[in-house]
Amino acid sequence: MKESIAAFEKFMAIERNLSEHTRKNYLADLRQFTDFLAENRSGTTLGPGGIDHLTVRAYMASLYRQKMKKVTMARKLSAIRSFFEYLLREGRVASNPAEAVQAPKAEKHIPVFLSVDEMANVLNAEAAPDDEAALRDRAIVELFYSSGIRLSELANLDVADLDAAQALVKVKGKGSKERLVPVGAPALSAVGQYLALRGAAEGGEAGPLFTGRDGRRLNPRSIARIVERRVKASGIGRKISPHKLRHSFATHLMDAGADLRSIQEMLGHESLSTTQKYTQVSISRLMEIYDKAHPKAGGNDEKPK
């Protein structure tokens, strides 16, 4: 198994060109599966060719007993499927045992987001004009909300990726797929002020867009902490992650009448079904407004005037 997993790791990196984050998750999932095999096969090492669908099903049942989230279980099964699909193509196994195992149906969650007023409070927190860190933190939040990009995507941005003249940012998304995303004037202004104080020119260098005191690129964890501090300082009384800013971006676009395909393109979703969850948010809000406003909604018996 270890040999096969090592070969699969190279395949993911070179041929599939998957992101480091995805590769790490898949490898961790496969190692967990390998641990399960060792524990449930009297400690003997079981090669990929000796694994059948019953073994995979038993593993999924063990995850269920651990009360693991269904979305996590589905990802782990996807990792096993991809692994055996690779081995099947390489002729190392005769079949893919994970194909016969059904993934658990994921729970449908309505994305958590900030209202327009809450978002305004987060964005309007003042930043000292001569404080590089304060201007950077403001620029980070402005760019998150203006573009809706992922945390990892923002962390990987270079100065050269920002085209202020065209109001666009070039984003390297999942699978190293590049896309152009519009950026609003407030975000461009905030980033411009930060870069001017830092002594960098927009689009004029290959270095990272957001840096720490040591001049090195900020990692996703550091950026998440910056967002958390900024949200806390706004006084809205909610704990909001960078991903919630992405949800807010998409939900506000949807509420303003943007079409689903455009939002899909900006978010970098491969499937339209992934973007459709934001229609559920809008419908939920619509029903809430209806229930409050309509004289005959929700058991309200007041007669219309």
Share in β-strands = under 5%
Q: H/E element string?
A: HHHHHHHEEEHHHHHH
Rounded Rg: 24 Å
- Low-confidence spans: pLDDT under 50, at least 5 residues? 300-305
CATH-scheme architecture of the largest domain: Orthogonal Bundle
What is the domain tally?
2
Helix fraction by DSSP (H/I, runs of at least 4): 55-70%
Topology-level CATH name of the largest domain: hpI Integrase, Chain A
Explained architecture:
It contains 13 helices and three strands; from the N terminus they run αααααααβββαααααα. Helices cover 55% and strands 4% of the residues. By secondary structure, the chain is mainly alpha-helical. Mean pLDDT is 82; it is low at 300-305. The protein folds into two domains: 2-100, Tyrosine recombinase, N-terminal domain (DNA polymerase, domain 1), CATH 1.10.150.130; 116-289, Intergrase catalytic core (hpI Integrase, Chain A), CATH 1.10.443.10. A three-stranded antiparallel sheet has the order 1-2-3. It is elongated.
Give short descriptive properties of this protein:
mainly alpha, three-stranded antiparallel beta sheet, 13 helices, 2 domains, 305 residues, 3 strands, hpI Integrase, Chain A, DNA polymerase, domain 1, elongated, disordered C terminus
What's the gist of this structure?
This protein has 305 residues and is mainly alpha-helical. Helices cover 55% and strands 4% of the residues. It is built from 13 helices and three strands, in the order αααααααβββαααααα.
